[in-house]
Amino acid sequence: MKTNLRLIGGRRLESSRNIDTRPTTLMVREAIFNILKNTVENSNWLDLFSGTGAVSCEAYNHGAKKIVAIEKNKNNSKICLKNLHSLQNIDNRKNDIEVICKDVLIWTKPNTERNIFSSNDFNKIKFDFIFLDPPYRANYHELVLNQIFNCNFIKKGTIVICEHSLDMDIKTNILWNIYDVRTYGQSKLTFLIHI
Asked: Whole-angstrom Cα distance, residue 63 to residue 53?
């Protein structure tokens, strides 16, 4: 089933025919970027379980400096790159974007060699924002969060935005504080900050 996927502002994106792909809704994306406001500008953004890249595209449109999207489905990762490359003024910024077709559970393992970037600049990145939206029923949230907060691409003050189902609660941990939780329809957003 093909969805009618649009960015904030109305620009249409290509979407997946894969019925297992559940794009972050426009309402949730608007909420994220309204909460973050101008802090996204000149930031380094990591989009985990990126699907067809709607959140990465929004980060680009809100001024993110570097964007890395991780998506294990080969078709979705191709669509993600195509969507990012369709954005305004992208010709001068293609080197600021990396889409990696890899399993997030493997890519976020602490001490993993991440020299799969096309640019050496990306290997040294510490991300300001990390967005993750694993499949709701997969129960990956806790595992991925623990892996993220033990990786060398995170720094003190990094904000991790986790989208998950209403019936899931993410607890405070010695590695992070929860500073905001919002509910939108069937989705919940938990904002974590690296201590």
From this structure: 16
- The C-alpha atoms of residue 146 and residue 70 are separated, in whole angstroms, by 17
Q: What is the pLDDT of residue 112?
A: 66
Report the 3 state secondary structure along 60-121. Answer: HHCCCCEEEEECCCHHHHHHHHHHHHCCCCHHHCHHHEEEECCCHHHHCCCCCCCCCCCCHH
> How far is residue 31 from each of residues 17, 152, 161, 189, measured CA to CA in Å?
26, 28, 11, 9
Ordered structural domains, the chain, with CATH: 26-194 (3.40.50.150)
Q: Exposed/middle/buried for 173, CB within 10 Å: 0-12, 13-18, 19+?
A: middle
- Kindly list the distances between the CA atom of residue 75 and the CA atoms of 2, 51, 109, in Å, as whole numbers in the listed order: 13, 9, 24
Q: Residues 112-140: pLDDT tens digits?
A: 665 555 555 666 789 999 999 998 777 88
Classify residue 6 as exposed, middle or buried by CB count within 10 Å of its CB (0-12, 13-18, 19+). middle
Residue 86's alpha-carbon distances to 72, 89, 108, 153, in angstroms, are 21, 9, 28, 27
